């Protein structure tokens, strides 16, 4: 989330992934994917910098996760096939495919 300021000086957080467009004419307007519009005091350039900083922060958090190994996240969806047959996550525990009945 990025924190922006309304014209009345109240601050709120917005999910930058839901921003569709940013207009600067002359006030900066965030147009969300659902059509909602927010006028903020920050310039378009400042909002873009905040979005870039937020995304860099998320990527950095993902890289620091303990499950992040060998340059790829270990999501646990498909276990690695290295190791001895019969061990968890090895080819010895795979279920063979059956042909479809036609």
UniProtKB/TrEMBL annotation:
Task: Fetch the InterPro entries from UniProt.
Answer: SwrD-like (IPR009384)
Pfam families associated with the record: FlbD
Quick one: where's region Disordered? 70-102
Q: What does the UniProt keyword field contain?
A: Cell projection, Cilium, Flagellum
Please report the name of this protein according to its UniProt entry. Flagellar FlbD family protein
